[in-house]
Automatic annotation (TrEMBL):
The keyword Nucleus applies. GO terms for cellular component: DNA-directed RNA polymerase complex; nucleolus. This is RNA polymerase I subunit E. Keywords: DNA-directed RNA polymerase, Nucleus, Transcription. It comes from Seriola lalandi dorsalis. It is found in: Nucleus, Nucleolus. Belongs to the eukaryotic RPA49/POLR1E RNA polymerase subunit family. GO terms for molecular function: DNA binding. One of its GO terms (biological process) is DNA-templated transcription. It comes from the Eukaryota. The keyword Transcription applies.
């Protein structure tokens, strides 16, 4: 047995080549060509030589008697491998036994049937959003986790669209039945009720007597009322001189007025005295900004009453590493509403709004808004000729009368006065 050795050859680099000098390697997508001599190849290049992206674009056409093939290096059907690696073709000269190495590029030849539209001829969807493009990439190249998240989001989107359509249909039905004006009025009433519910005591609009509209137990529970026994006894024991001193000091005028006209004996006197002490704490609380745990200790406030005041009429804030209790503007409105409800129980369902807004340190318009939100009837005594009537004519009274008054909401904002 004899072994035949291959003849030796050497490689020769052809130097720097242009794109036009590259060799062409074709691959037919529908199979192999049996006789390549029957194909007529034509190369087309882009005429824009100045554009660096377009000047390297090529279209290769192979025509035969039966079918035509087209391939390119830039459209969707081109081979991406041309951009990832370099291809070379070796041409052997049998006489000199030297192989010349040339740059090459691959073309994927696809058959073209006359009358058939290709994907390249389809216009690009310009309405596709960035989100849709990302979803298409996830569908094609995303991980299983990304595909599950995409499927879940699309299912939720379908459910959300269905819900929106149902809501829109229901809204149109309601608008057609009630009308726009009636719905706007309902929205105004609902918003006003929602804002007032933040500071108005629990209200029983179906009550048969005025005392049951704002229940006393919602203002002071039986346990809290019992805890005020000792403090109420001290209030009941105040002398007329001490009450006059409180009046001269200009504080708690509502409390002084209730103590001056409270019953002389019996449970009614004890109830007024306890409520007067609790009312004095609320009025003092309204004058504060930040509170400490020492609030009410000088007056002998029971711990359960202090906790109730902090929980009901303050908001917690974090400052300098400590939790502080603060009386906000909305909490002052709440104190005003609860104080007014307590005065109604102390004064046979009638309260003096003028004294109350002075003790709280708020404006008269603000206390009137609170009284209106509670459905109270506002009255202002007519001017009289006597001195007593002259002192009384500026005091506005609020009474709880069934049915409750429903006031119209003032929607326009008040104009501020310009400062000169």
């Amino acid at each position: 047995m004899t072994t035949t050795m291959a003849a030796p050859c050497s490689l020769v680099c052809c130097g720097e080549e242009r794109d036009d000098d590259k060799a062409v390697i074709v691959r037919f997508s529908n199979g192999s060509v049996r006789n390549a001599d029957n194909l007529d190849f034509t190369m087309y290049k882009n005429t824009d030589e100045n554009n660096p992206r377009k000047r390297s674009r090529r279209i290769l056409v192979a025509e035969s008697d039966r079918l035509s093939y087209v391939g390119n290096n830039f459209a969707a059907g081109s081979l991406k491998c041309n951009n990832l690696c370099n291809y070379y073709v070796g041409v052997l000269n049998k006489q000199t036994m030297k192989m010349e190495v040339h740059n090459a590029q691959l073309f994927n030849m696809q058959p073209v049937i006359p009358g058939e539209t290709t994907d390249a001829a389809k216009p690009q969807d310009t309405t596709q959003t960035f989100r849709d493009k990302v979803d298409s990439l996830i569908e094609a190249f995303g991980t299983n986790k990304q595909k599950r998240a995409l499927s879940s989001r699309r299912l939720n989107q379908v459910g959300s669209d269905t819900l929106h359509q149902a809501v829109a249909k229901a809204a149109n039905t309601v608008i057609n039945q009630k009308g726009v004006e009636a719905l706007q009025q309902e929205v105004v009433e609902t918003e006003s009720q929602g804002e007032l519910a933040l500071h108005v005591p629990p209200c029983n609009i179906d009550a048969d007597i005025p005392e049951n509209v704002y229940l006393f137990d919602d203002l002071l529970s039986p346990v809290e009322f019992a805890a005020l026994e000792q403090a109420g006894s001290k209030m009941a024991a105040l002398t007329p001189e001490e009450l006059q001193k409180m009046t001269n000091d200009g504080g708690c005028l509502c409390v002084v007025k209730q103590l001056e006209k409270m019953p002389t004996v019996g449970e009614a006197r004890d109830k007024v005295a306890r409520c007067a002490f609790y009312l004095s704490l609320m009025l003092k609380l309204a004058q504060q900004r930040n509170l400490t745990r020492k609030f009410g200790q000088e007056e002998g406030c029971p711990r359960i009453i202090q906790s109730k005041l902090f929980k009901t009429f303050t908001v917690e804030t974090f400052r300098n590493g400590r939790v502080l209790n603060m009386v906000s503007t909305s909490m002052r409105a709440k104190i005003a509403a609860y104080s007014l409800a307590l005065l109604l129980h102390m004064g046979h369902m009638t309260a003096d709004l003028t004294l109350l807004h002075r003790d709280l340190g708020i404006t008269e318009s603000r206390i009137i808004e609170v009284a209106k939100s509670m459905g109270l009837t506002l009255t202002k005594p007519s001017r009289g000729k006597t001195e007593e009537a002259g002192l009384r004519d500026e005091h506005r009274q609020a009474s709880l009368v069934l049915p409750l008054v429903k006031y119209d909401q003032f929607m326009e904002r008040r104009k501020r006065k310009k400062m000169h």
